[in-house]
Design brief:
It contains seven helices and 14 strands. It folds into two domains: about 150 residues, Fructose-1,6-Bisphosphatase, subunit A, domain 1 (Fructose-1,6-Bisphosphatase, Chain A, domain 1, 2-Layer Sandwich); about 110 residues, D-Maltodextrin-Binding Protein, domain 2. The longest helix has 27 residues. Helix 4 crosses helix 7 and helix 5 packs parallel to helix 6. The chain is globular, with a radius of gyration of 18 Å. The termini are far apart. The strands form three sheets. Strands 3-4-5-6-7-8-9 form a seven-stranded mixed sheet, with helices on both faces. A five-stranded mixed sheet has the order 11-10-12-14-13, with helices on both faces. Strands 1-2 form a two-stranded antiparallel sheet. By secondary structure, the chain is of the alpha+beta class.
């Protein structure tokens, strides 16, 4: 690897923070009655002025420092054929746009980086609260605040989840019927609904949930790249709904994760994979 991962992480954090700060600025205007320019990219897939403004800020920052790196971003379909490059930034400037529109605060900014298809750097920032999670391969996962209050602290996923009292994080806006089967199979006791992939990953890392599962199509590479590094470096696992690693080297424009994803601590991984496969009808 020819570039220092800590330097790459530093730029990723700068880019994500700049994007999140712009989103926060527009969000505050929205809460005060401002217009955020909502339009539909496709059915049930809205985009706002905040998505586009953050996307521009983040991609410009990354390209200015790393002109030879590819940038694959949700908001520019022309970039979706770039997964085969050595270094690929995978950006979701505003994950949870529906929740941004609902003004419930459940949305994040995500910046991830792959090297020859392996996630190596990840940053997730929650604009509404200023929470930041970040990691790079081999150096652990850390939590900080955009306000600068307190020192960054290392975080680890708890290995004390009680298999008899599991707490499950699920999508608030895109809940699939397979979730109910998953709940029955594992006899889940508590269900926590939230917006944004990155935010639900944060729930598992913080110990507020034991498992996050999205047993449906719909998530894309930019949804899982940054969270995968963060989960892995925190001691957990992020896999497809089949229990297999998510491939980031893809044919051109193949950006969907067809079997969704799951996140959990390692000590209950076998149970979670079994339930996920069962819910998908694979076993």
């Amino acid at each position: 690897m020819t570039q220092d991962l800590e330097s790459l992480l530093d730029i990723a954090r700068q880019a994500a923070r700049l994007g999140a700060e712009k989103i926060r600025e527009i969000y505050q205007q929205y809460l005060s009655g401002g217009n955020i320019g909502i339009r539909e990219k496709a059915k049930d897939n809205p985009v706002t002025r905040a998505d586009m403004a953050a996307n521009q800020i983040i991609t410009q920052r990354l390209k200015s420092v790393f002109p030879d790196h590819a940038v694959l971003t949700e908001e520019d379909a022309d970039t979706w054929g770039k997964t085969g490059s050595e270094w690929v930034w995978m950006v979701d400037p505003l994950d949870g746009t529906s929740d941004f529109i609902k003004a419930n605060g459940e949305f994040v900014t995500m910046v991830g980086l792959t090297h020859f298809g392996k996630p190596t750097v990840g940053v997730v920032v929650e604009p509404a609260t200023g929470l930041e999670l970040y990691a790079c391969k081999g150096l652990g996962t850390y939590k900080s605040r955009l306000s600068g209050e307190g020192r960054p602290s290392r975080v680890k996923i708890s290995e004390t989840a009680d298999p008899k009292h599991l707490r499950l994080a699920v999508s608030r806006s895109h809940r699939d019927p397979r979730v109910d089967e998953f709940i029955q199979l594992l006899k889940v006791q508590d269900v926590i609904s939230s917006g944004s992939v990155g935010r639900k990953v944060a729930l598992v890392i913080s110990g507020e949930a034991d498992i996050y599962v999205h047993p449906a199509r719909g998530t894309k590479l930019w949804d899982t790249c940054a969270p995968e590094v963060i989960v892995s470096e925190a001691g957990g696992v992020l896999l497809s709904g089949m229990g297999e690693p998510i491939a980031y080297l893809r044919p051109s424009n193949d950006i969907e994760n067809p079997y969704g994803l799951l996140v959990c601590p390692r000590h209950i991984l076998d149970k979670v994979i079994w339930a996920s496969k069962k819910a998908w009808g694979l076993i």
